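Holo prediction. Input below; ligand is thymidine-5'-diphosphate.
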Amino acid sequence: MLRARFITFEGIEGAGKTTLAQHLAQWLQAQGVPVLLTREPGGSPMGASLRSVLLHATIDPYTELFLFLADRREHTLRVILPALQAGTWVLCDRYADSTLVYQGYGRGLDLALIRQLNAIATSGLTPDLTVLIDLPVELALARANTPTRFEAESRTFHQRIREGYLQEAARAPERFLILDGQAPLAQLLEQVRQALQTWLLREPDAK
Ligand code: TYD
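Structure of the complex:
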């Protein structure tokens, strides 16, 4: 059987990654691929309570970093790795790149430190594919509809996030697929499907 793949979705708020992840999960399931769609923060049993603190409380940047990492470690050990080991593909809405970009490029914490801590939080798990939806900040913020304290940040904060993602993608081009968030959903979905095709063609049960 084909090895289960780990695919993450990244981008600034309002980029449309959640919708794309949902559609991709449905499409994979229709191809006979077992899929788990999950998200961070809040994908682990403990994470559900961390999520409300992270999204709404005013906290120190390091506290914020540690909470995102704690959420990631629980999520990775209890949800993501067991699913992959059972042969289920995992689609995750935000993962380690979010911490590098938001707490590193956004809040100004040390990138090398975050890379080290992420390596612990993820147990060294790296996505097979990271879909980055890139979009100008103004357009993305106009679309974002769930108010969290991140959305209240300045335009320059979000600009740093956008640029941080593009820099991280340039560091690891072998796993990043950068999509234009202004393109229609059907086109984005098609681009991801094309990127997955070589894997899926090897799947004996795939249609
Ligand atoms: P969420 O409501 O899930 O937003 P979105 O739909 O944009 O994913 O809120 C997650 C927020 O948390 C988002 O603003 C990004 C931020 N975040 C970090 O700052 N660091 C992280 O490691 C993660 C996973 C998320």
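The pocket of thymidine-5'-diphosphate is lined by residues 13, 18, 40-41, 55, 68, 93-94, 98-99, 102-103, 146, 148, 150 (CB under 6 Å). That is the main takeaway for now.
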